[in-house]
Structures are given as structure tokens and as C-alpha cells.
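Appendix B, record 7
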Amino acid sequence: MHIFEKDHNKNGNGLKMKQQTKTHRTVQEKNMNGDTSPRLKLMGVNAPIRQLQELLAALDNFALISKTDSHGVITYANKQFAKVSGYSIPELLGKPHSIIRSSHHSKEFFRTMWDTIKKGNPWKGEIQNKNKDEKPYWVYSLILPIIGSEGKPVEYFSVRFDITDLKEANERQAILLEKLNHSNQELADFSYHVAHDLKSPLHSIQAALQSVINDIQKPLPKDKRETLSIVINRIDKLEHLISQLLELARADIATDFNETVRVSDIVKDIIDLVKRPEKNLSFDVRLNSHELWGEKVKFHQLFQNLISNAVKFVDKSNGIIEIGAKKRGRNIIYYVKDNGPGIKKKDQARIFDLFVTRAPSTNENHNTGIGLATVKKIVTRYGGRVSVRSTYSKGATFMFTLPKAIPKNSLN
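C-alpha cells (predicted):
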């Protein structure tokens, strides 16, 4: 009777074939209390072999099982192997395992596999084979060397699982994702061009309307002035909306120009651009020497939307806006914090959705609900997450990470 034992030679790998002449032996062992356990009396060769047979019987129903000699000639094949390969068991026996090899993998792939198992080490991986009708199929394969008395492999035992359906599903998913990305890019390009083309006529309409107002000699009646004021305000709103749509479209357009960007320099430029003299705001910048690697225009969009958002909504006489960064593990969390009116709990989950705003649009504030959607798009582009923490009437803190934009030396 044959049993398999772990080989204790210098390689320490594989299985060793040992001839066992004694059919069974009685083993008595004591449990933790010193009592003899009757359940262990029948341990020996019969128990492990019976367990192995039960395992092989279970595997035989859904796994492709085979055994070859040291040269790769098939000496055993189960029914599942025959079914998937399209060959009968007699057709497989005595043939080299390469009978099912496809041309998908390189020679180097199989050379590496053979080098591994010849050294007595197990090998596992995905392989594309071909059946008798030349149709390819995929398996996940585990090859175990059986070590002989001289410490070298004498046979190879293989267990494979058919993963063809899974691979095909993954391929279909990859194709769909590629088509979706292509469609999204086309939509982004279309949106950009439409928004750009709409903005030019608006400038002309606004200029022409202002020219008409300037040419009128007599003072206009109050109702006429109010009507013109409404028209101009609507044009301003529409122009702002188009500008925001352009920003959203730009977030999807790759410039392929990456560079190291010092975050504090971007933030300083943005503060100079968005601060309002009529608002008594103080800016607390806590960025030190933080740097990002990527498209500077995207980082500028990201921080400008968040800082502008804070400037717009701070309604206190002593408004404070804090911009900083904190290291957490291998990530850096950037944040923009304000002491404005905050965001209601029920609105926080949707605040980054398109056209969702912190407050209704007014004549002074043209809130479009596009700025934070642009922030989310850029953050996602760099593999990060964006979130908000807020207690209503006590301000809001917007936080985000940019894992793909962290320079390798910035975490040292």
C-alpha cells in the first residue's frame, strides 16, 4: 500500500513516495486530561488514505485531475479532464501533456513552469489550453511534484479548475468598460464644445444690451429698468453656468502634462484671486512643503472650487477659512474648513452630486451645483475619495485624498 509523506530532504518541498507494508497500526494518545482517546485508536495508514480517497472523489466531480511521469507523459486522467479537453481517457494516456497546449503562452512561460516543478516546488497559475477541436479554454492549475527516493521529482500530480466562463466574462466586462470610457470621453468633448460655443454669443448679447442701455438718452421708467436688470442678471447666471460646465468638462480631458506642484503656491494664487474686500475673511494655510505630481490645471480646479465655495458661504463677520493637510498612514488628507452656516445632515450624502447646491441661487451668488461635482471627478481621477463633515450652523470641512498624485519621495 502506498502513502504520501512530507519529504525532509534538503529541498524540503514536494511529496515522497513510501512503501508501507503494515496494513494498520494502533496508536493510542492521551488528551489534555491524560485520558486515552478511543477515537485515535484506528489512526495509521487506513485513515489518511481513506481521507485522501474521499478528497479525490469530491474533486473528481468538478476538477480536472491528471498525473504525468517526470517527462510530462500522461499516466492518469479523470473523466472531467477528458470531458473538457474533448479527448477520451485512452486518447490522453501515454501522450505528452503538450497535446492540449495552445499557442497563447510564450516558451518562456512554460520554461519557468518546468524550472519550478523540476526543483520540487509546486506551481500554480492560469493557463489557456485547447481542446480536441482546437477551441481554447482556460484553467486555474496547481501542479505538485511527487519526490522519489533520490530526492528528485518522479511524477507530477495536477489539479485544474475550468475558469473559461469567468475569463470570458472578465473580457466582456473589460470591453464594455473601454466602450463606456470612450463614450464618456466623447460626451465630455461634446459638452466642452457646446458650452464653449454657447458662451461666445452670450458675450455678444450682453455687450449689445449694455450698448443699447448706454445709448438711451432719456431715463427709463422704473419697470423698464427692472426688466433690463432681470435680463442682464439672467445672462450673468447663464454665463456662470456655462463656465462651470466647461470646468466640469475640462476635468475629464487629459492634458498628458504632469509636473511636480507645490500645493501652497496654488493655494496662495487662489486666495489672491477669490478673496473679497467686502468680507472680513482670514485664511489659515497649513500646508508646509506638500507637493503633488500630476496636471497642475486639475489641482488648481480642485482647490479653487473648494476655496471659492468656502468664501461664498461664510456669512460671519469674523470668517475663517483653513486649508491644510494631514498625513494618515501612506496617504495625505487635504482639507478646506470654514466656519460658515454648515450643511444639513440630510444634504451631506448628495452634496457632491451634479446640480446639488449648499444654498439656492441668488442674484449675488450664482449657485449651479457643478463645482463640487467637478471636485469629486478630479479626486476620483487620481484614485482618491472626497467627503464632508459638517454640523449645521457651525461650518463645514471638505476632505479628500489623491493617492495617485503623491510623489514617491513625499512620504519619506
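Remarks on this record: The chain has a mean pLDDT of 78. DSSP finds ten helices and 14 strands in the chain.
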